[in-house]
Design a protein that fits this description.
This protein is an alpha+beta fold. The protein is built from ten helices and 19 strands. 33% of the residues lie in helices and 22% in strands.
């Protein structure tokens, strides 16, 4: 989860990993409250006032820079960690209750709030609650009681306190949200254009009189990805780029197949890592990425003068792998929020011959022969969900595949389902053996 780097520096550990011993050190070091850190002695009461306070604390952080609310540490009314104060669990007021309050009292709901219970090892039976709140791209988040549409309040952190925004400030926050959405679209377009330029340069380049790569690899599927909450990964030195490239290689191995694992050394790029071969792509310091994987476009031996053929199953597997790799890289840089994705099919040999999809080695779809789609397929997915749950990667890839395949004659994907299933029984032995991180 992307949280202010200051928190990790101040607490000595990422907030997702804090223990009671870490909290005790915070007390000993008098770690102060701030816009991204709130110490609370007592758990929220089950009254409307208590629910409103919980909603206000979480929404205020989401509306500011994100942060963490630690329940069970007394600030001694001095705005710093003063003493540990673990408490007895409250029956019926656990994680489900906390999430229910946030869902009903905050509009829009703050996405990706972490709710974690930490058991005390010193005081038997007592606990702490840690609420981690990422900065939100959907801000401003307003607080109001369920069914109360006329008494909204928007709060932000102001130093160690929380204050309510004036109407003019709320209006500016909405303008910022809409501008951010526009900026994301522009960033996605920029990543796509830069990636296409890099891919085209690689495919058409000749070295030592050898044929250009496009001679052997005319067809490609590409995926541009931009996180709505940008990350920050150092890529300014060769050591930084080498480390990032190695990390991406390892991350790509956790995809569906190994086809998205780069095999060539990284190249110099401005605040990015570039690589060539199978696949080709760019990794940007803010978590954005562009990856391109070759697809097989070949003649139909049964009908040499007919349309060329594309393997539908391989294309679908590649899309899942590219989605997983893009999400893994974005998370590695500290990005968060949603992941905006744009997938395209390209042919670089200048041939405008129509294509037809092959479903299996021996069975061909006899739908209309059509040119490759001119328009990209676009989708948005929850970054954290894709990283955590491979089924979510299939859901997103299925949406992308459905749009691309529909433009070339397929009613629906063959091995991907909208529910996140990968129909491995429809794969041949060769494709099954290539699977990684997925039971065949």
């Amino acid at each position: 989860m992307a949280l202010p780097a200051r928190l990790t520096a101040a607490l000595g550990r990422h907030p997702d990993d804090l223990t009671e011993a870490d909290l005790q050190r915070a007390v000993e070091n008098h770690i102060p409250e701030s816009a991204d850190l709130d110490w609370k002695k007592d758990f929220y009461k089950g009254t409307d006032a208590g629910k409103k306070e919980l909603a206000k604390d979480v929404s205020a952080m989401a509306n500011t820079v994100g942060g963490i609310v630690v329940i069970g540490v007394n600030d001694g009314e001095q705005d710093h960690a003063h003493g540990l104060a673990p408490f007895d669990p409250v029956q019926g007021h656990g994680e489900e209750w906390i999430r229910s309050v946030l869902a009903n009292w905050v509009q829009p709901v703050v996405p990706n709030v972490g709710v974690r219970l930490v058991k005390s090892t010193v005081h038997e039976g007592k606990i702490y609650w840690l609420l981690t709140v990422p900065p939100s791209t959907q801000a401003p988040h307003a607080v109001a009681g369920p069914g109360n549409d006329y008494n909204f309040r928007v709060h932000v952190r102001h130093g160690t306190t929380t204050r309510t925004l004036a109407e003019s400030e709320i209006a500016q926050r909405y303008r910022d949200r809409f501008q951010a959405a526009s900026d994301d679209v522009d960033r996605l377009r920029h990543i796509t254009d830069a990636g296409l330029g890099h891919l085209s340069d690689y495919l058409t380049r000749t070295v030592d009189g050898r044929s250009a790569p496009v001679t052997f690899y005319p067809g490609w599927v590409t995926l541009a990805a931009v996180p709505t909450v940008r990350g920050a990964y150092p890529l300014t030195t060769q050591a930084d780029r080498n480390a990032a490239f190695k990390r991406f290689q390892d991350l790509a191995c956790h995809g569906v197949t190994l086809r998205a694992r780069p095999e060539h050394p990284p190249l110099v790029g401005r605040r990015q890592v570039r690589f060539e071969g199978l696949p080709t792509g760019q990794l940007h310091h803010d978590g954005s990425s562009y990856t391109a994987q070759n697809i097989s476009i070949h003649n139909d031996q049964r009908d040499p003068n007919g349309p060329d053929l594309i393997s539908q199953r391989t294309l679908e597997l590649d899309l899942v792998t590219l989605v997983q790799a893009a999400a893994a890289w974005a998370a590695e840089t500290g990005a968060a929020g949603d992941l905006m994705l744009s997938a395209e099919l390209h042919r670089y040999d200048g041939n405008d011959k129509p294509v037809r999809l092959t479903v299996t080695d021996s069975v061909f779809q006899r739908g209309p022969a059509l040119p490759l789609p001119a328009a990209p397929a676009e989708a948005t997915g929850d970054l954290a969900a894709i990283v955590i749950d491979k089924r979510e990667a299939v859901v997103v890839a299925c949406a992308l595949a459905s749009d691309l395949l529909a433009d070339i004659g397929a009613h629906q994907p063959h091995i991907l389902t909208p529910e996140g299933e990968l129909l491995t029984d429809r794969l041949n032995d060769g494709l099954r053996h290539e699977l990684t991180g997925w039971e065949a």
